[in-house]
Design brief:
This protein is of the alpha/beta class. It has four helices and 17 strands. The protein has a single domain, classed as Purple Acid Phosphatase, chain A, domain 2 (4-Layer Sandwich), CATH 3.60.21. The protein is about 20% helix and about 35% strand. The strands form two sheets. Strands 9, 10, 11, 12, 13, 14, 15, 16 and 17 form a nine-stranded mixed beta sheet that branches. It has an eight-stranded mixed beta sheet with strand order 1-2-3-4-5-6-7-8, covered by helices on one side.
Amino acid sequence: MKDSQTTQKTTTEILLGGERLQLMPERAVWWKTSGTLLIADTHFGKEATFRASAIPVPDQTVEQLSRLDRLIHETKCKRLIILGDLIHSRHGRCETVLSLIGDWRDSRKSLKIHLVRGNHDVGAGDPPMQWKIGCIDEPWNDGPFRLLHIPNFGEESAGPALCGHLHPVVRLHGPGGDSARLACFLLRNQVLILPAFSSFVDGKAMQLLPGDRVFAVCEDRVLPLN
């Protein structure tokens, strides 16, 4: 395992399934040998769902698409795989969100995009056909990996897996009683759980088990904690 510097950003590389994966501080995984960028839990339209219940919250769609654009530009990826929960709910399929993502997709016509359906995708429905996103039920076998939304820790023997769903966070404690919650990647046996790409979701503080590896996202860095 090693750290590498890209401009002022620190990423962390892991070896899983015989492949080198780069853990990115933008909460993504770069699988260079296949030209694949992986993210999980975008939950587009969650803010619109809150506004539908008369709870005023600012929209995060533009920020998420900008972050995704930076990753695509940096990696020059050939395909993007979303590990579930693309759209938060049917309320999230509002005109503003659909228009923003539709315009973004039009500007990225050559990029292949696949969605491994998650639990929120069941309720929200598949994305509009004009977005040209291939939708696949889990598990999807791709190279050495099983691509899932919901991790199944009882199936580690089936081979290495990448998934989302849990929105893992880790709580760090400092001197003087200070503490901080940081989004993180969690590697448990052969299962890598990605942090939620959306910053507007609840995180789950993981109960760590012996052998777990934790990689915290701290601004522009991914930091191995153990």
